[in-house]
Amino acid sequence: MRRVVVIGLGIFGFNIVKELYENGFEVVAVDKNKEAVQRVKDFSTKAIVADGTDKDLMFLIGIEEDDVVIISFGEDLAAATLITLHLQQMKIKNIIVKAPNEEHRLILEKVGATEVLIPEKEIAGKVAKSLISPNVLDYLPLSDDYMIFEMAPPNSFLGKTISDLQLRSKYHIEVIAIRDILTGRLYMVPPANFVVKDGEVLIVVGKEKDIQKIG
């Protein structure tokens, strides 16, 4: 499993470190704020007090090409940009940067970020979709049109088979898996006679406008 280096230990950075570490990753946490490093030391493989913008210090930490580096600096575009540039010069292959908006995303991509996250935008999108389509629990965009959705089956689906629901003909969506919430078991490509029950989540692929028609 690849090592992950997280630079910047605000709320976002701290929670990334903790989540990865608790799931078995080797995580190095870096921040110039001693208190922030102290808070995360029990939830990381190694916690280091260092200024992420200091290129020499990044070399001393021993960041390697195959490490995943996550930069989380909130509104400090200058620091995030400088660190991204240094990492790109060090030939780091995976540089993930948190940004507050699309303008910052474009700048960070120009200097070498391989992925830019805009958490506020993603959260806003999920909140809006949860209001537009109350059954949708989560989603993953596949293209401009198609998405994979996790959705709680409405009451009208319960006790019916996949065949009974006629999702492809009525809504132009396809059930690709069903997950049992209690056991965590995943049924991939369920057969037509699979009966949908309470406590299950449907994982479907289709267009958002078609998902919104399900009530």
Describe this structure in words.
The protein is α/β, with parallel strands linked by helices and 215 residues long. It has two domains: 4-117, NAD(P)-binding Rossmann-like Domain (Rossmann fold, 3-Layer(aba) Sandwich), CATH 3.40.50.720; 122-211, Regulator of K+ conductance, C-terminal domain (Alpha-Beta Plaits, 2-Layer Sandwich), CATH 3.30.70. It has nine helices and eleven strands. It has helices at residues 11-22, 34-40, 55-61, 77-89, 102-110, 119-132, 162-165, 167-171, 208-211, and strands at 4-7, 27-31, 46-49, 68-71, 94-98, 115-117, 136-141, 146-151, 174-180, 186-188, 200-207. α4 (77-89) links the parallel β4 and β5. The protein is elongated. The two termini are 42 Å apart.
- What profile does the largest beta sheet have? 6 strands, parallel
Q: Per the principal axes of the C-alpha atoms, what is the gross shape?
A: elongated
**CATH level 4 superfamily of the largest domain:** NAD(P)-binding Rossmann-like Domain
| Order of strands across the main sheet | 3-2-1-4-5-6
Q: Which topology of the largest domain does CATH recognise?
A: Rossmann fold
Q: Overall pLDDT, averaged? A: 86
Look at the structure and give the CATH class of the largest domain.
Alpha Beta
What helical percentage do the residues reach?
25-40%
* Number of beta-strand segments: 11
Class based on secondary structure composition and strand pairing: alpha/beta
Order of helices and strands: EHEHEHEHEHEHEEHHEEEH
Strand content: 25-35%
- Uncertain runs with pLDDT below 50, 5 residues or more? none
What is the CA-based Rg, rounded?
A: 21 Å
Oligomer: single chain
Number of domains: 2
CATH architecture of the largest domain: 3-Layer(aba) Sandwich
Measured distance between first and last alpha carbons? 42 Å
The number of distinct helices, counting runs of at least 4 residues, comes to: 9
